[in-house]
Design brief:
369 residues; alpha/beta; Rossmann fold; Arc Repressor Mutant, subunit A; 9-stranded mixed beta sheet; 12 strands; 13% strand; elongated
Length: 369
């Protein structure tokens, strides 16, 4: 039987033992097949394992168990690639503590396609959401695969930007790929599967757990040539991924933010410490030496937006110029523009209809995405 089958068995016990312990076993025994066939005494002699760990290793060492797992995966249209498989992502093989294998649903983008991770805070500002989307969208149009973690906030917006750009995207999960987490991303998950894949090192049925997310972050960065951080506090978990990316030899990009915003402290400090500051997606392409696809420059949405800006009345233009990608209250707009509340309300409505402004809760406004 092919070694991939035994690697699948080894991956199935990842949640109980962790990736490092499985890699230690592979180093000691050479192949998953040898681990599968080893006696308890051989396991104990080769690697210092607790009796609990040995019980986990020997509990389901049957071909029937593997066949049952394969049947479940087939019903879910799930694919498994062992690290020894030729189709396993080559960049991911190179990282410290590489996954034993990966499970995915959808289509895994070709190994030779350029991949960029976009990450940031779950609790983010409108500015963080905007930058994730407006950077992901043109990158996707230029053929870059966008990788993120499908978490709330920046991750989800990065995937949406990639989909709106007509490109491919990979969501790396801290649970089994048959589980939608967070649950509100059900529609997004379905769209990702149609235009890329959801991917995880964890076997089907694995529920999300706090310990799994730092581990999955090494895969997000490991799949890519570089990582973009759009927004992060000083102690954000996002910075764990950045550290992993640095250890993996990946390029790190950071979006500058307002120095008075706590959500930009992490990104601004990354720039201070040597990360590439980016103003738009072309900065990323230039650093990585990727030639952009010229035909994406004149897309229909950009044409429509330019036309809308050209047709603004003077007072509409004044309000538009007062808006940024950070929320501005209606009262502040009155103070900034000097326009009466009634007239300003109509102007804001018109800008919303033209896609040039968005109304947020609390009667606040930002520029349209």
């Amino acid at each position: 039987m092919h070694d991939d089958i035994y690697m699948l068995w080894l991956s199935s016990i990842l949640p109980q033992l962790g990736s490092r312990k499985l890699n230690t076993l592979l180093e000691a025994f050479g192949t998953a097949r040898h681990i599968f066939n080893a006696t308890k005494a051989e396991l104990q002699d080769a690697v210092k394992l607790t009796s609990h760990a040995i019980n986990i290793l020997t509990k389901n060492r049957t071909l029937g168990y593997i066949e049952s797992l394969l049947t479940d995966m087939e019903s879910l249209e799930m694919v498994y690639l062992a690290r020894c498989n030729d189709r396993f992502p080559s960049l991911l093989k190179e990282i410290p503590d590489p996954p034993v294998g990966i499970f995915f649903i959808g289509t895994l983008p070709a190994d030779n396609t350029n991949k960029i991770a976009i990450i940031g805070s779950r609790k983010c500002s409108e500015y963080g959401l905007m930058t994730a989307r407006t950077i992901a969208q043109p990158l996707a149009k230029d053929g870059i695969v966008i990788v993120s973690g499908m978490a709330r906030g920046v991750d989800s917006m990065a995937h949406r930007g990639a989909l709106q750009g007509g490109g491919q995207t990979i969501a790396v999960l801290g649970c089994g790929v048959d589980i939608c987490y967070p649950s509100e991303n059900k529609t997004l998950r379905a769209d990702i599967i149609k235009n890329g894949c959801v991917l995880s090192e964890y076997p089907p049925g694995t529920r999300p757990a706090p310990a799994f997310f730092p581990a999955r972050n090494r895969i997000i960065s490991g799949l890519c040539q570089g990582v973009i951080v759009t927004e992060a506090t000083k102690r954000s978990g996002t910075l764990i991924t950045v550290q992993q990316a640095i250890e993996q030899g990946r390029e790190v990009f950071s979006v500058p933010g307002n120095i008075s915003s706590k959500l930009s402290q992490g990104t601004n400090e990354l720039i201070r410490d040597g990360a590439y500051p980016i103003a738009d997606h072309t900065d990323v392409l230039q650093v990585l030496g990727i030639t952009p696809i010229a035909t994406t420059k004149n897309n229909e949405k950009d044409k429509h937006q330019r036309k809308s800006l050209q047709n603004l009345a003077p007072d509409e233009n004044q309000v538009y110029d007062s808006l940024t990608f950070e929320a501005t209250s209606f009262d502040m707009l009155i103070e900034t523009t000097g326009i009466s509340p009634g007239k300003l309300h109509l102007i804001c409505m018109n800008l919303e209809l033209k896609g040039l402004a968005r109304k947020l809760s609390g009667n606040r406004y930002v520029r349209g995405l």
